[in-house]
């Protein structure tokens, strides 16, 4: 694993737990973690349960006891590490967004496709797909429970930048983060919207904003914010369905509020990450006098991933998405099946994000997403 | 009153009740109702409690015992009736949207402004402003409880057109209705967004769709739908705040789902018409460990309109907005104060709707709203 | 109508509105209202829309233009007025609880039964039965949608006595009010539990409390509270189902929180008066992976009382229960059908309340409710 | 650890994770697990991550590398194992309810008190106390945020026995399980009510029921159910506050529905285990026009246990209570501080359960809980 901060801790929990809960065809071993600060990475290895620590990701890749490289670094290093790992014959799991640019993502897809012919798996970490409620939503859409799709509406709101005195940081600089709320949060809802809908966006129209132009530096000066605080966009699907997206880090009181709703001719589905064990479903085919959105508590053995966990009504949390991701990746490696979401899926999301930025720069004009 | 269908019944309930609940400076008398079908209008007069029935709105306006004309007809007749009533020296209440075009609305504003100099009141029926929870929201925004505004997000969803076999009707023809979900539902959320924010939209970017192009006629044939089923648009305020709007009549399971949320630097407010006695408020200035969206049950004597009604916890319904509208209009007439919302407010909403349609026709490009 | 305070205003709204919304076989005329203070009752008559005012209820009953007497006074006068009115040949609507004692209620039932043979109707005002969502719940129970009943759980909580400095008043004196939260609020949930279940309680076990023993008088002194602040009791149905009840006026933040849930072998129903347009329904016969409590928005034309009101999604409020009560009473008078709930139903609730007080006085021992 | 079924898996997850998330003064080692079936326990050891497997709990206790014995067996073996382990000088964690009888629990308390003088810790597994939202609730009550307590109301409902054809099992036999819903679910809400209130119940009044008297055996016959399906009871606190409790395994649609609410003079708190990352708080001291139950998303670094986990808004699940339990137990062992909840706390809960059964057997008469 490369990187050991928030994402690194979450991934570690996933690797540590997956084989203890699910019956896996292969047993993951947490052999080495990598970070630039030798002292810190050794402490992290001890705390998180990695057998060894490295300070250079090239050394990590070179290790014989590493068959899978899990990339949890900021977006500007994804491409270089992932391509090198794939070329070195390793499987790769890469955090989202796949890269900071379409060009980087394209290079990663080429490397992944070549690697796949050698039996290597490359997966991008859109972990929310593994939330049982959203996996159930996908199953229900695929089974025709909502019929022809008309609308997708998705918001992903946080509030840690609503305070204008919150400090400057790398996530607010374009050169490191690629974009702001758009890449950090928007990438998730673009992926989910397309994954749940089972189809892709053909174009978008967008507006973005940076509400606070400068923020305090640790040295007492002020630094210029070069990414968006918020991005709003509409999207069109090939089928004619419409989508709306909004993401912001300045929505007071919304801590990690990812909401997504799909409306179809035969029904609707709605989800809220702050209540992640629930899925709302409206069945339009029921008699009107007894119809209504039902709150499915997604904790039944017949629900995705749930048979391995606790009895009905005993809910899961955020980190379980990483346990499920680890389980699905191990399954893919064992069977050689093409992984989902693939690097190609990650590239396509990147193309949507690029179209959003282009539209925002061109007065919101509708901007196609290349196929 | 002209028209006696859904809106006419709701307005009648308002006129009948306002003086029984509030202490009004003037007592409204329900002297005459007007409709084209003589038998039907007489039955409506009897049922709804109007003393007389007319079949020609010109006759209604000509009556000496009519000082206020309440227009509840489809949008294509608003301008003619309202202008004539104002020129005849009557006060006017006109249902929203004010007109089917900006040009008609401009003529109405001119007539209203001339009439105001003669002490006549002209008000447009954006009744949802009179929901106590939304009146409280406006009061809290004005008092600075949410601080500098960052986001408004509003949706107004219904589902009576989600079934592709639902029949053709006048609301689906542009020549009568002006537009579809946009004018019917979108007008409300545009008015509310601006009213609550206390500022106006400067431009919009929009996409609209008609999901079902033809619908069955009563004669067995098929009629072409010439209005939108759904409209999605983003908007910008002069202050730099962003807005998102979505309205549809094809959102399965959403019966009359008007939701609006405002996020500011110091707090957030959220409202859902399906739970109209509640207002959600998050106070960002509270200590983080005890902060959260609170559900204010808007039934206290200190809440707008509530002192005249029931004890705390005894909720109101949809029609009360019309009782409050009647009360506020009577107050305005008695005091001669300029009414809110005025015809000029109605015209401005019309300009936003026109900009939405223009943007949708021009590949979603950002389209300014004339001041 | 006798009495013109809170209940009088609510009943007036019911009488004024019922014929304007529903097609009634008889048209109610609001001929006279009665109260002891001549000035105040005249003002109330003017405000609420009653043609005449009386200061002695005997005079009211003696009027030829009064065929129905609507009793909205405190409980200690119900029996005398109701019996006199029935003996004078009038129909009677009496607010709940029917009386302050079982003996009074028995006398009222005798008078009502005698009157029924003369074609007179006597109804007790358990208005919450007329909430569309609860009428729908009753319909679903009767249709077998929840199967054999196992549990009823009901709470009715308010908070206007949580403040120990809230003043003394007649509602806190046993000689006027009969009991405290028990008769005021508990009567409603006992009636609803039995009405929805379709069966009667056979016995109860109870505890009551008065948290604040003395309260300030307007003269600066302190008065002794002689009624309960709260009552908790369990109940048993003949079928073996169990019930739990809790009512309090000292539940901080609960303004008018009447909640009731029924669990049966085939499903469950849940209701919350603070969201009175909604009914929650769980269908236990559905596949487990798609089951869950659904929120039925009770605003469809097929729902009880709703065809006469607004389109789907346009909710009603508290006072509509009185409109529906007026409508049902007029229907009963026109058809001569035995009314529901009858005085006998009111007496039976009184017997439950008496058993609650007896159990509370006897160390909570299970106390039978006489049949 | 003794036992490796549902509770064993949950405890294993706790032991495996605690040191990876929290900075612990001691590192737990998962040295041995014990079960009667040699094959099954070896498989469980491999799956759950225990280094060795034993088939006799006496052997487990005899191991030198075992300093802490974690008892996850049915209630009828708790006393024997716990007393033996304590006498052998081990620390003990014992699942709830502490025992199947007061006598057994008393013996366990004696052993624990003797052991404490030797520096051994004995804790009972009321894990829900470690839910961050409930730990926050306790903190707020202790800080006086709800003032003098008036009401506690708690329900714990499941539905796996609502189906009358659900099979017989050991949990339905008194000799193994001690009681039914009462001990399994009721023990939790009794502990929580007292823990959150910060005071103990002085007496109870109860009714219990077994709705389905016989259930199918695996051999085709029918077995007699000798425990309760449901228990309802009221309780009194020394302070005069009242409590209501209801627990059932026959509440259709309620999967694991533990709800608890406290009302005090200055505020109220409410919790629902199905939404375990949320705590509702009403502050009665706020101005009435802005007051309401606020939904605190209990995911902030200042909330109990949360600094070690994820950023705000990223929720935890059921099993985290076991991680927190492991962490708190390790802290207690390292510091020698008396543990909470102690065996004495477990005994006191047992006394409440015994009083419930006694009251139910004596016509619900109020039954004191011995101090």
From TrEMBL, chains A, B, C, D:
SUPFAM superfamilies: Glyceraldehyde-3-phosphate dehydrogenase-like, C-terminal domain, NAD(P)-binding Rossmann-fold domains. It comes from the Bacteria. Gene3D superfamilies: Dihydrodipicolinate Reductase, domain 2 (3.30.360.10), NAD(P)-binding Rossmann-like Domain (3.40.50.720). Residues 136-269 form the GFO/IDH/MocA-like oxidoreductase domain. Residues 1-115 form the Gfo/Idh/MocA-like oxidoreductase N-terminal domain. InterPro entries: Gfo/Idh/MocA-like_OxRdtase_N, Gfo/Idh/MocA_oxidrdct_glycsds, GFO_IDH_MocA-like_dom, NAD(P)-bd_dom_sf. Signal peptide: none annotated. This is Gfo/Idh/MocA family oxidoreductase.
């Amino acid at each position: 694993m490369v990187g050991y901060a928030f994402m690194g801790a979450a991934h570690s929990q996933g690797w540590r737990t997956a084989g203890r809960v699910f019956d896996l065809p292969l047993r993951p071993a947490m052999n080495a973690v990598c970070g630039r600060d030798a002292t810190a990475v050794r402490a992290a290895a001890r705390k998180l349960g990695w057998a060894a620590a490295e300070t250079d990701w090239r050394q990590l890749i070179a290790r014989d006891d590493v068959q899978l490289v899990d990339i949890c670094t900021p977006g500007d290093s994804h491409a270089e590490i992932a391509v090198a790992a794939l070329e070195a014959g390793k499987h790769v799991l890469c955090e989202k967004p796949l890269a900071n640019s379409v060009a980087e993502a394209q290079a990663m897809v080429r490397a992944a496709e070549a690697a796949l012919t050698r039996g290597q798996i490359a997966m991008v970490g859109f972990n929310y797909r593994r939330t049982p409620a959203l996996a159930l939503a996908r199953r229900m859409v695929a089974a025709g429970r909502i019929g022809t799709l008309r609308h997708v509406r998705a918001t992903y709101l946080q509030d840690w930048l609503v305070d204008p005195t919150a400090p400057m940081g790398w996530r607010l600089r374009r050169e490191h983060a690629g974009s702001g709320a758009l890449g950090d949060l928007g990438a998730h809802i673009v992926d989910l919207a397309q994954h749940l809908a089972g189809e892709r966006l053909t174009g978008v129209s967008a507006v973005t904003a940076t509400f606070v132009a400068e923020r305090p530096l640790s040295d007492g000066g002020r630094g210029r914010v070069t990414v968006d605080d918020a991005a709003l966009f509409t999207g069109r699907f090939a089928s004619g369905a419409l989508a709306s997206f909004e993401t912001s880090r300045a929505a007071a009181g919304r801590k990690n509020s990812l909401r997504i709703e799909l409306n179809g001719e035969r029904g609707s589905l709605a989800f809220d990450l702050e209540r992640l064990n629930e899925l709302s479903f409206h069945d339009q085919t029921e008699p009107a006098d007894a119809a209504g959105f039902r709150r499915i508590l997604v904790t039944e053995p017949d629900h995705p991933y749930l048979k391995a966990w606790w009895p009905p009504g005993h809910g899961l949390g955020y980190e379980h998405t990483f346990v499920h991701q680890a389980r699905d990746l191990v399954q893919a490696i064992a069977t050689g099946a093409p992984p989902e979401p693939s690097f190609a899926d990650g590239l396509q999301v990147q193309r949507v994000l690029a179209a959003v930025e282009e539209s925002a720069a061109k007065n919101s004009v509708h901007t196609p997403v290349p196929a």
